[in-house]
Design brief:
Blueprint: H1 2-19, E1 21-30, E2 41-44, E3 50-52, E4 58-65, E5 69-73, E6 80-83, E7 90-95, E8 105-107, E9 112-114, E10 122-126, H2 127-133, E11 149-153, E12 162-166, E13 178-181, E14 184-186, E15 196-202, E16 218-223, E17 230-245, H3 254-267, H4 286-290, E18 295-307, E19 311-324, E20 328-345, E21 350-363, H5 374-380, H6 410-415, E22 418-437, E23 440-459, E24 479-502, E25 506-529, E26 554-573, E27 577-588, E28 597-608, E29 621-635, E30 649-655, E31 658-664, E32 676-689, E33 694-706, E34 709-710, E35 731-732, E36 734-750, E37 755-773, E38 779-782, E39 793-796, E40 803-806, E41 809-812, H7 816-820, E42 837-839, E43 854-857, E44 863-873, E45 876-886, E46 889-892, E47 938-940, E48 943-954, H8 957-960, E49 967-981, E50 1000-1001, E51 1008-1018
Parallel strand pairs: 1-7, 13-16, 46-50
Antiparallel strand pairs: 1-4, 2-3, 2-5, 5-6, 8-9, 10-15, 11-12, 13-14, 15-16, 17-18, 17-51, 18-19, 19-20, 20-21, 21-22, 22-23, 23-24, 24-25, 25-26, 26-27, 27-28, 28-29, 29-32, 30-31, 32-33, 33-36, 34-35, 36-37, 37-44, 38-39, 39-40, 40-43, 41-42, 44-45, 45-48, 46-47, 48-49, 49-51
Length: 1019
């Protein structure tokens, strides 16, 4: 009986103990603004039980004892302890910013630094912004969110590259910043955006720790990792949507086209081609034919993360499938990624970490811009032609003097385009940190990238008109071209970090180390002729038996290396007076003997004024810091082996009256190549106001780039640079200066328990000026306009790089008297007549000739800005992101200057008689100088774009947590909603990527407008 009583007592006590376990959850917010804080570590004190908050600051823990204490910790905020109370299982925890640890830790290269102690121009984009933007490519997240950064599209086609410029264009060579992913050099465009925790942009001398690769700025990527003492977390994100073109151009319908063509022929003294225009109607809108609607895009992303006291892990995978708004699957893009991140505390002294990313993508593409692109043909093909003939075949565009030999049916062009590109890449790093003693840690890391790509393109035998070679795109002999490329690099970093606090007030951090970097790879290219059955199905070199008169095969291999040593010292007194100095020594095999080594020093300093005694307890200004930096950085991003001569060119020799294929010199060598040097100066102010609700950052900068490395600079043709495989040399040939002002302001506030808001605005004012061009003639030309005309862009002293150089117009000749009083325009193509453009005699010599060309436009914007808004009301969230560019010009070059092509409807306002207009010239089949490159073709391309708008709803956790789900969020969004601009073309923000000629619009594939429906679920 006694034992039964003991059993009953034991069961009672056990059930009582079990009953005291509570499910506790809630949200963690900032004390000042009331905004949720993601990533807060929530730990049950003196136990291994813990978790972390999600993107909305929410957390949940099960089975927590009634007397347990929860510890909330997050960098930049004071720790907070909370004792669990049975009556309160839904918590609202507020964390206060720690004045000693203000703001988050920032990655600065080979280390981190507290935000308040950063003395350089550094900007950060966090995961919350990425969550709101939902970019297809991670580069898109920088547009409008970071001052001083401009992202331009080369094409709106899926998978097309984006160009990033930090604080302007500094050279005619490589301008793209270097991307560092978790410590190793990587490729930004291949990342899955959902794998990224934060993006840090180093814009000034702070990047000097990277030496030769830092001249164009550094983008540091931190990928997501697991958190210690947190339970396993599963996150699934998906969106699906459809795309459409964001813009079509107003071309002439069939009746308008016929009437205008009749007028043109009549003005030229020729019989009209359409004696009867009745019945033509609107005809064919070729843009509607080539642009598809409701084009699908779908993305899935799943991740697993968590950790114990010693181990952290994060595993993720993603799938993106996007078709193109032109050609659909013919310009489709598919990307799959997988990532594994592990961290382990082997002992109190040794920590290991690894991060490996696998990327696969497949891309198909069309001729996307330029003379002969699909859009070029859609804009210029007459609307009187139908897409198909009576037999159901593609209609052929006639060849005559009025339509030329380039324009073909764009539908036939798409149908006969066949190509396929597959890319596979594995990249990542393995690293360890070993604490030798309390203040000294040695770190080492091996980073690697290895990629393989294969491409195949098939040229189908086809005639686009009647006779062979009537059209330039006629293929008289079928062929298939294939390539296989293998690119690799690895880096080994070894550095030590010494951190010491002396007498409580002096803080010292010293870093010293070295980096070994090697790039190597090879490529093989081959072409086979006479494809069996003239079919893509049999397009493989193994099946071709045709013989070529030229060399159809080629290959290359390369091996480039850098050996670097670096050191950095950081000192602060009471966290108030800040100073750092860096130096890096780089040796690169891209330069010849005597020029291989470069030294890159830099200095930064800061003063936290708000910590001074005289500042007092200002209730308006909570934090103020003055900072400055100056340093030199390098650039060696040029073609390989430019300082030596190689037999990489093709040549044909005559031996015994027989033509023999052989080799010739390739790129003209330049043994005097040396480092391109960037001298960066920056002074800035950081503020926090109104209880830290308002943050202001302002910077003034001067970036002077000397000894520009300009590849393929034009030289005399006597050197044979026009031969196949040959090229002009790379030389150090100039100096460019970018100067400007950056300003950003952010406001965060919680107005009530239900409503909070975050608003941000940033603007960058930029001036670009070429200071030197040392190539013998004082300028470098580039770009193209029309057919057979002089290059329209220049790099010249005293002007912005890539400015437009042509004839200035002064309205329209209204009568013959005005023509007679003006200098002859015969040298521009024909004598002028009333209704023609009037060109300005710039030099006043009474003769209009190429000497009268002048500056007529600048493709570089005078200012760029972003305005971003986020709001939360109860369970709803709303975000909108915008970007604006002001003062940039573009050249309208997507119209073929022939008489019978279709035109945009602005020509309906043409000159038809004296006083009718003073802006648009007459139409005629006769010879004129109106098509000569002039300011008539240069337009203001300023624009404001609503980049992203998103509305979301999060299910109340008290419902979802019953199913073990911590978060359920549904959202709808629109990317590239609308662009406000006066520019006539498809995309005022596009560029072909070339610093000289980049502002010339050849008919850019427009960025699609994308409507999305998405779902986020966390378990």
């Amino acid at each position: 009986m006694k034992s039964n009583y003991l059993l009953i007592l034991f069961l009672f006590l056990s059930s009582f103990g079990f009953a005291q376990g509570y499910d506790v959850g809630g949200v963690v917010k900032e004390a000042g603004s009331g905004l949720p804080i993601p990533g807060v570590n929530v730990q049950v004190k003196n136990s291994t039980i813990g978790t972390s908050t999600d993107m909305d600051g929410r957390f949940s823990l099960k089975g927590v004892a009634a007397d347990a204490t929860l510890v909330f910790t997050y960098i930049g905020f004071k720790n907070r302890e909370y004792k669990v109370v049975a009556s309160n299982s839904a918590l609202s925890i507020s964390l206060e910013e720690d004045s000693k640890v203000l703001d988050e830790v920032v990655v600065i290269g080979y280390g981190t630094q507290k935000r308040r102690e950063v003395t350089g121009a550094v900007s950060v984009v966090d995961s919350k912004t990425l969550e709101a933007l939902k970019p297809v490519r991670i580069e898109q997240a920088l547009q409008g969110t970071v001052s001083g950064v401009n992202v331009t599209t080369t094409s709106g086609a899926p998978g097309a590259a984006l160009d990033i410029r930090i604080r302007g264009i500094a050279t005619n060579g490589e301008n793209r910043p270097t991307t560092i992913i978790d410590g190793y050099v990587g490729e930004l465009g291949l990342l899955n955006p959902n794998d990224v925790e934060s993006i840090t942009v180093l814009k000034d001398a702070q990047a000097a720790i990277y030496g030769t690769i830092g001249a164009n700025g550094i983008i540091l990527i931190t990928t997501k990792s697991g958190k210690k003492n947190s339970k396993a977390r599963i996150s699934y994100n998906s969106y699906t949507g459809f795309q459409e073109t964001s813009r079509t151009l107003p071309t002439l319908n069939a009746t308008e086209y016929a009437l205008l063509l009749n007028e043109s022929y009549a003005n030229g003294g020729n019989p009209v081609p359409f004696p009867n225009v009745s019945g033509l109607g609107k005809g064919t809108n070729w843009q509607n034919e080539v642009f598809s609607i409701s084009v699908p895009i779908i993305n899935h992303d799943i991740s697993f993360s968590g950790g114990s006291d010693k181990i952290t892990y994060a595993v993720s995978g993603s799938h993106l499938d996007q078709e193109g708004i032109i050609g659909e699957s013919k310009s489709g893009f598919l990307r799959n990624t997988a990532r594994v991140s592990l961290g382990a505390d082997v002992s109190e002294k040794l920590k290991l970490k690894t991060n490996v990313i696998y990327t696969y993508f497949n891309r198909k593409s069309l001729n996307e811009n330029g003379l002969g692109s699909v859009l070029f043909n859609a804009l210029n093909t007459p609307s009187t032609l139908s897409p198909y003939d009576a037999n159901g075949d593609f209609t052929k565009v006639p060849t005559n003097t009025g339509l030329g030999i380039e324009i073909i049916n764009p539908l036939a062009q798409m149908a006969n385009t066949y190509n396929d590109y597959n890319f596979k890449k594995v990249n990542g790093n393995f690293g360890l940190d070993y604490k030798v003693f309390k203040d000294f840690t040695i770190s080492s890391s091996i980073g690697f990238n290895t990629s393989n790509s294969e491409s195949k393109s098939f040229a189908k035998q086809i005639l686009y008109w009647i006779n062979p070679s009537d059209k330039v795109f006629d293929v008289l002999r079928s062929s298939v071209s294939q390539s296989a490329i293998n690119d690799n690099d690895y880096s080994f970093d070894l550095f030590g970090t010494y951190t010491k606090k002396v007498a409580e007030d002096h803080n010292i951090t010293a870093t010293i180390g070295n980096t070994i970097f090697k790039q190597f790879g090879n490529g093989l290219f081959a072409t086979g002729f006479d494809v069996p059955y003239n079919s893509w199905e049999f397009a493989d070199i193994a099946l071709t038996k045709g013989i070529s008169e030229t060399v159809p095969n080629s290959s290359y291999n390369y091996d480039e290396r850098r050996l670097s040593y670096f050191a950095r010292g950081q000192y602060d007194y009471k966290g108030k007076y800040l100073f750092s100095a860096m130096i890096r020594r780089d040796a690169s095999t891209k330069f010849g003997p005597g020029n291989k080594v470069g030294y890159f020093p830099s200095f930064t300093a800061g003063w936290v004024i708000s910590d001074e005694g005289f500042f007092g307890e200002d209730k308006i200004i909570n934090f103020m810091k003055l900072r400055g930096s100056y340093g030199t950085l390098g650039n060696d991003q040029i073609p390989n082996n430019g300082y030596i001569s190689q037999l990489s060119g093709e040549a044909t020799y005559v031996f015994d009256d027989v033509l023999v294929n052989g080799l010739a010199t390739g790129q003209t060598p330049n043994p005097n190549l040396k480092w391109e040097e960037a001298r960066k100066f920056d002074v800035g102010l950081d503020f926090k106001l109104l209880q830290n609700k308002v943050s202001i950052v302002a910077d003034y900068f001067i970036d002077t780039r000397a000894d520009l490395l300009i590849p393929f600079i034009p030289v005399s043709g006597i050197n044979g640079t026009a031969a196949p495989g040959a090229a002009s040399p790379t030389i150090n040939a100039g100096t460019v200066r970018n100067s400007g002002l950056e300003f950003s302001i952010d406001y965060k506030n919680k107005f009530s328990d239900n409503f909070s808001m975050s608003v941000g605005y940033n603007v960058t004012f930029l001036k670009n000026e070429v200071l030197e061009v040392n190539n013998g003639i004082g300028y470098i030309e580039g770009g193209a306009f029309g057919v057979g005309q002089l290059p329209p862009s220049r790099m010249e002293v005293g002007k912005p790089i890539g400015y437009f150089f042509g004839y200035q117009t002064d309205g329209i000749f209204q009568n013959q008297a005005e023509v007679a009083a003006h200098p002859s325009q015969l040298a521009l193509g024909a004598e002028a007549s009333p209704g023609d453009l009037r060109f300005v005699d710039v030099n006043g010599d009474g003769i209009l000739d190429p000497n009268d060309r002048t500056s007529i436009g600048d493709p570089i914007p005078a200012a760029t800005m972003g305005f971003n808004l986020q709001m939360n009301y109860k369970n709803f969230d709303f975000a909108v992101y915008t970007f604006a560019s002001v003062g940039n010009d573009m050249v309208r070059n997507y119209e073929r200057n022939l008489t019978d092509v279709n035109r945009l409807n602005y020509v309906l306002d043409r000159w038809t008689g004296e006083g009718s207009t003073n802006s648009t010239p007459r139409v005629t089949t006769g010879a004129t100088g109106n098509s000569t490159f002039s300011s008539y073709f240069v337009e203001d391309a300023s624009y404001l774009r609503i980049q992203n708008m998103q509305l979301g709803y999060s299910l109340d956790p008290k419902y979802s947590e019953k199913a073990g789900i911590t978060k359920v969020r549904l959202y709808a969004g629109v990317n590239n909603l609308y662009t406000f601009t006066k520019y006539k073309g498809f995309d005022p923000g596009a560029s072909n990527g070339s610093p000289i000629g980049g502002g010339i619009d050849y008919g850019f594939y427009p960025i699609p407008r994308t409507y999305l429906l998405g779902l986020n679920i966390n378990f």
